[in-house]
Amino acid sequence: MKTNTDDKTASVEPERRLAPVAPRYVGQRDRKRWKRGIAGLFLVTVVATVVWSVANLLGDAALFFYNADEAVSRRDELASRRFRIQGTPLAEPESDFQDGQNVLKFLIGFNDVVVDVVHVGDPAGLFQVGVPVVLEGAWRQTADSGAASDTTDAMSGTKAWFFSSDRMLVKHDNEYRKRQGYDDRISEANRGVATTNNSSDG
Amino acid sequence: MNTQADFMHPERITSSKATEATESRRTAGTGSRTSFWLGVVTSIGVAGLAALGFFVVPADDVQGDAVRIMFVHVPSAVGAYLAFGLTLLGSIMWLTRKSEWWDILAHSAAEVGTLLCGLAIVTGMLWGRPTWGTYWEWGDVRLMTTLILFLIMVGYLVSRSAFGTADPVSTATKAAVIGIAGAANIPIVHKSVDWWADRTLHQPSSLTDGKIEDLTLLTLMFGFLVVGLFLCWALIHRFRLGWLERELYAEELSEALHARRLEAAEEDRSRS
Question: Which residues of chain B make contact with A32, given a CB cutoff of 8 A?
Fold first, then answer.
């Protein structure tokens, strides 16, 4: 049977009832609260960054670049947009120097589709024939720039499209060969050129 | 032995007990003879890896000397996968068995894994600059999924700190959920170069699909061994540290309770 005293005890807040044996925070509560506040803020920042990154990923990364064949097939849709195109340089570029900047003209290919490229600016360090590149820029027609005027279709009078880029990234593959092989191939290529020259001279 | 004067001033008892506990912990440490030798072997391995990577392996045909970063980058990334795999295992075991051992393992592995993941990101950036022509591309799938994995695991560590030790069971449970969610990203990160093969700047997996020159492959394998040894060494120390932290917390809690009981007894005496 409960007494009045028991009822009074029961009505007291549990924390107060336990106070005599509970651990106390002497001068540490504010510091812990401050520490937790900082940690909480950091956690919120991390979560926000993750959300932002996911949004960025879904919005952009799924179409980080169009392969050359896709870019050609979607040319009408992409005509006024800045985007990235991926392809493999097919031949050594023609270099020029205009308005204080390097201008490279070359062809890239992907899935048997070839695209004319005019790149303004320095090429990436590993830029070379056979190593895929990702170029950032937009479709242009020959009238927009004299750079690719030689690609105009003289018979039909239509203007040819080319990709005008100002940013280049190199997309290397996962084959790792020692440089010795590279030197050998260069030597072989040089020997091949020499042989061809000799035979044509003859 | 506690004197009458000590009972009048319970803080003295607490203080002396804390000193004893500190001494005990100092002698306990986090190392052992095995972990010491493991550390020595790991250090020798790091030196050997540096020697192989810088002086023995030839420059790559396309990438030149930049390829040498691979010997740290790829093993770090795989080491991070392994560590986060342990976090996943530890988290599941905590949720199912409520074993402190597994919780400490999950926490320790998350810390070491986050370190390795950060190393993989930094070395990847350093590798990307001379090869791709950029340190970072926000739109690239492999880079972004790795960053998300890293941030989730940082969030795991921050959450453990933020939730505090007031309720270790609740903290461990919340952290376990984050740990499982974070580790679930590992297959996405790993397969991203295959699933978005035509959409990423990152090359396909060098190990499963790549063609690697013999000496380069040997050095890469040696890199895996060294990172594996480091992972074991760091995990052993971090696990022991975590265990000692738990013991310290339990000890401090009982000391605080003891001191409070003494104060309460004193109050009762003074009232009566």
Answer: 164
